[in-house]
Give the backbone structure.
Amino acid sequence: MTAYEIIAKKRDGIELKKREIRFFIEEFLKGKIKDYQLSALLMAIYCRGMSDDEIFALTESYIQSGARIDLSGIPGIKVDKHSTGGVGDKVSIILAPLAASLGVPVPMISGRGLGHTGGTLDKLESIPGFRVFGSADSFKKQLAEIGVAMLGQTDSIVPADRKIYALRDVTATVESIPLITASIMSKKIAEGIDALVLDVKYGNGAFMKEIDQARLLAQYLIKVGAAFGKKVVAYLTSMEQPLGKNVGNWLEVAECIDCFHGNGPADLMEVTLTLTAEMLVLAGKAGDHEEALRKCRDALVNGTAFDKFLEMVRYQGGDTGVIESPQTYPLATYRQVVPSPAAGFVQSFDTQAVGLAAVQLGSGRLRAEDAVDPRAGIVVHKKIGDFVEKGEPLFVMHTNNEKVLEPVAGKLLSVIKIGEKKSRVPKLIAERMNRQ
């Protein structure tokens, strides 16, 4: 086999054999196949797609590139959740402690934000002292002791994906469904889970712009999970507007604290409760979805979910003082209102542009090496269907960079459409999918 032959086969739409895919990945990691050759294969995959067998083989090759965490010694059905990414999506920070407080072991390996979408690790790191990296042994120890661990990907877990994703990012192949599937599922399978709940987002703030794309991605993710003996359930959820009100790392953590105390936005709580309830059912901690929802609501009301969040923050070195008293957290130096230029109903958002505006304020990164300001971000005061008076706040910008206030304010006025007629509010949860 040669790299040239394998690239040419995929370019011509010929299905690759399992041994060819494994050879290509192994030789790339050894440095014998070069970046430009892998880039060519990625583009061929993007253009030609992959069969089910090819996707299974690619996922397996990713997994075999590193270590697998063995969680079999920890009692219970281990369940994780993964979101394909959106603006204001802080669900994991509420969901993981909530599920763990109800007896579900939650091993969660999360990622950083890139582009318009935020990253769970960046949000957690806005908590002073919070550690997001550790060894596989420390991951297992934490899961055994407190039932939840939210950490970043170690060097030993799926190194092939980490290297290949960097090339996908610069070769315009990120949106390939086969490549997304292998990337997500290899990490989840390698972390030792038994079951997985997926939040597959669609709309103008998601990577999948159309619901049919999101449905196809969910189908592949479920298929791959089944091929590796994992139970997978997917929900298709709308990203036609930011989820919740706050966009930006500490701002989102503060909103999560509100949710633990029963003061969270309705849309954020709907997605969080639906996904957490599904985790309880998969873990055998509830007989059906309605029972699971009741248990989730009770854990929020009686404080056990918040106690578990505090326990996790403390275990990972975070300052629980700012969690218990979030008003003591220092805000950004500059906070400026963006007022509505007219009266009317909010009809739509360019959600991706909202995310990029938050990045410009300092909350995210466009390149992996960019620094992140934990205090920067945007508070969204109006959502689709809301009425706004002229001069009433649409957004509040938070930043430590005064120079970006004026251009970002102009950008935010362009991302929201206000009109005389009230628009239909997009359905938040469109569909539940599982293996038929």
Q: What stands out?
A: The radius of gyration is 22 Å. The chain is about 45% helix and 15% strand.
